[in-house]
Amino acid sequence: MPNTYSQLYIQIVFAVKGRKSFIKEPFREELQKYMSGIIAEKKQKLYAIYCMPDHTHIFVSMKPDMAISDLVRDIKANLSSFVKEKEFVNEFAWQTGFGAFSYSKSQASTVVNYVLNQPQHHKKKTFKEEYIEFLQKFEIEYDEKYLFEFYD
What is the spatial distance between Cα 100 and Cα 112, in angstroms, rounded to a whole number? Predict the structure, then answer.
């Protein structure tokens, strides 16, 4: 019986509710490791992750038996519980929604570098500029009133 073979590279972006800078440097790596564990538990392959103080970028290779929205839901729910349990932040929550952008294998190393170099990237560009640039680059129609809460 034939198997299913695929190669689906996805960059996922989501933001902290109210765009508050809740993800602090002292526990950023611990959050990233916890997210890595969730992704591995869901049998998806993580290539890069970086939590900025108010948003997160994840670059994964996904199997076709899992919906992107299910993975994001599980990451957000589990991470919110983890943050509260560890008492990193009292009122932590994620905004609803996310961005998901697909790439080819030939683009993978560029995307990994992009994700891992978020602090340098955001010295030049705000999160809003970055996110809208993604939407335009990928020719995604959007209504600005339904984007993340931007306070830049």
Answer: 15
Spatial separation of the C-alpha atoms in residues 17 and 77, rounded to whole Å: 13
pLDDT digits (tens, 9 = 90+) for 71-102: 999 999 999 999 888 888 878 889 999 999 99
* Global pTM value: 0.91
Q: Provide the residue type at 2 as one letter.
A: P
DSSP letter at 65? T
Give Cβ neighbours of residue 10 (< 8 Å, ≥ 6 apart): 59, 60, 61, 62, 68, 100, 101, 102, 103
- β-strands 45-51, 8-15: how paired? unpaired
Element (H, E) at 80: helix 68-86
The whole-angstrom separation of Cα 19 and Cα 50 is 16
